[in-house]
Known about the structure:
- 52% of the residues lie in helices and 9% in strands.
- By secondary structure, it is α/β, with parallel strands linked by helices.
- The chain is globular and about 60 Å long.
Amino acid sequence: MTLFTDLAPDARSPVIDWRAIEAAFDWFRELAGCQQDPVFHAEGDVAIHTRMVVEALVADPDWRALTEAERATLFWAALLHDVAKPATTRIGDDGRITARGHSRRGQIMARIILWRLSVPFRQREQICHLITHHQVPYYLLERDKPERLLHLISHQTRCNLLAILATADVRGRICQDASRLHDNIALFSELAREQECLTAPRAFANDHSRFLYFRLAERSPDYTAHDDWWSGVTLLSGLPASGKDTGLAAHRGDHAVVSLDDLRADLGVDPADQQGPVLAAAREQAKVALRAGRPLIWNGTNLSRDRRDGLISLFADYRAKVTIVYCETSEPELSRRNAARDSPVPAKAVTRMLDHWQPPDQTECHALEVVR
């Protein structure tokens, strides 16, 4: 058993061991004293709010009706949903308190915490994206084309679980607009049901149709794309020493290989230095292969969605299908492998990489392989 499973309450007797949680986690202790805007959180600081949210969650019959794994997923999402508020909270000149970006920052902080707790990859990513999107049910229907964000969410986590989390988040606060928020959560769930993605990812005609839908703003989710692209690119992703070289060996065949590590060595660029010259040289190598119609492997960390998106746009310009091979291992094994390398990546550089760590999902590519 681990802290992850030990601390998750049982549906039959959902008692939360707050003393054990506080003793185990410094990030939880840091929630105490973090102020919130009293207009939206008259109950008090983030620690008070978090306790109220988790208590509201485990009292919800919808939570109790879930499977054990689903209950644990939601419990940890509720416990961590505001983990980034201490890092993002600011008090403006007008005295108003904000925590802009705490959902996206919280996703990354939660990922590191749960990785160190050895939470299974898919369950961990569900939790992290519940945190990413935990405020979306409050405003989704006010957006232009809300279905597109809903479809994205359904491929990253579960919309029905997100609705349960959002409900607990409202019940765990004192605010004037609670009734409106509950109405919006109900509308979110109804739209997800209409779009056939409440409990499963939104279905597409094929992988190419899904890929183009998430890249083209005007594309209909029901459109069956004519698949005339070539199976051109394998994009490796993962922290240093996570197993990308093994993934490279498995997929190499007759592919051209763009290796950022090799280019750094050739150009004399340290991993801790600015990587602009390395990336420019890598893109030129890739274009040579793509123009020739030669299958390509891009070997780099590619840890953030934004970084991958720029590369995938390049590959898409050449009508090349993209397979992402994401590699991951435990923190102790990662450290062991890194230390055994001829040129270990400095610990400070790895820490900086973790600050941007966003594993890929199927909304980014034609195919995704996860190697652990």
